[in-house]
Amino acid sequence: MIPHDSPAQRASEKARRLAEAFIGLLTQSGYTATLGAPINYGHKFSLSHPSLPHPLCAVLYVGKEKASFVKEGKNWPDGLYDALLQEFRTLLEPEPMLPLAPIAQATGSTVAYVDGSYCEEDHNAHIGWAFEIWRDGQSIAGQAGSISHPDALSLRNVAGECHAVEQVLEWCRAHDCTEIEIRFDYTGLAHWANGTWRTNAVMTQRYRGRVASSGVRITWTKVQAHTGEYGNTRVDSFARHAATSHAFYPELPLSILSPNFRSSRTAPVPGR
């Protein structure tokens, strides 16, 4: 058993989140992947594919220096591990670090934070999504909710992130906003929108189409997840709450935030 709140437990939790992101990526290539048990400094998972005669096992480890994707067993087809390792490394691209707070934002600009969450309760799966709009250092709008469509469930939390972007674009349409910066923590959101990743799933195909037809000029900014970054922490909390409550929030439920993240006004920073 991993000691609670130990370095090994925190690393295992980080490995779980990384595994969930990797599973979302593998799904786009036709794989079915399942999370397994946490271990010291890592998390197990298995994957299968119609072309494979049997499931394969692997572990994601998170150490002090970097994360690693390690295969288990000797039944991996030649070349497959190396190919998946390259895919895994796309999740480890250098991420720009933004200040923890306040929100770093050019005067007059519009910024949206988006996130998604996935939870299972009593054998029922629910996906949460959330977005929050900032302008001149002030939160001016936001919503959160949950979805459970079969097309979404296969993508887990990634489906919630896609849906959050789509809701941001709906907000832009309703408020005549033609240019926005979207800050996100799952790299696939920008890759699918820009066409650098294939969209094999129904939901990602719909997502790419809606982004392309929105008429909104989007600046994509990758932020680092689960590091205390102010805007990302807020939407992560909202999405997780929506997933567990199975509810729609036309206004963000600020009361669920920890006191350090409840302020909806920060000092805007001229330029970026």
Keywords:
272 residues, alpha+beta, 2 domains, five-stranded mixed β-sheet
Show the helix and strand layout:
Layout: H1 7-27, E1 32-39, E2 42-48, E3 56-62, E4 67-72, H2 80-89, E5 110-121, E6 124-135, E7 138-147, H3 150-153, H4 157-174, E8 179-184, H5 188-194, H6 202-213, E9 217-222, H7 230-245
Parallel strand pairs: 5-8, 8-9
Antiparallel strand pairs: 1-2, 2-3, 3-4, 5-6, 6-7
Helix pairs in contact: 4-6
Structural commentary:
The C terminus is likely disordered. This protein is of the alpha+beta class and 272 residues long. The N and C termini lie far apart (45 Å). Helix 4 packs parallel to helix 6. The protein folds into two domains: 86 residues, no CATH class; 152 residues, Ribonuclease H-like superfamily/Ribonuclease H (Nucleotidyltransferase, domain 5). Strands 7-6-5-8-9 form a five-stranded mixed sheet, with helices on both faces. A hairpin with a 2-residue loop joins strand 6 and strand 7. The chain has seven helices and nine strands; from the N terminus they run αββββαβββααβααβα.
Number of helices: 7
Cα shape: globular
Percent helix range? 25-40%
Which structural class should the secondary elements be placed in?
Answer: alpha+beta
CATH superfamily of the largest domain: Ribonuclease H-like superfamily/Ribonuclease H
According to DSSP, the number of beta strands is: 9
Work out the count of structural domains: 2
What is the CATH level 1 assignment of the largest domain? Alpha Beta
Assembly annotation:
single chain
Tell me what portion of residues adopts beta-strand conformation.
25-35%
Low-confidence stretches: 95-101, 267-272
What gyration radius follows from the Cα positions, in whole Å? 19 Å
Order of strands across the main sheet: 7-6-5-8-9
Global mean pLDDT: 81
Largest beta-sheet characterization: 5 strands, mixed
Q: What would CATH call the architecture of the largest domain?
A: 2-Layer Sandwich
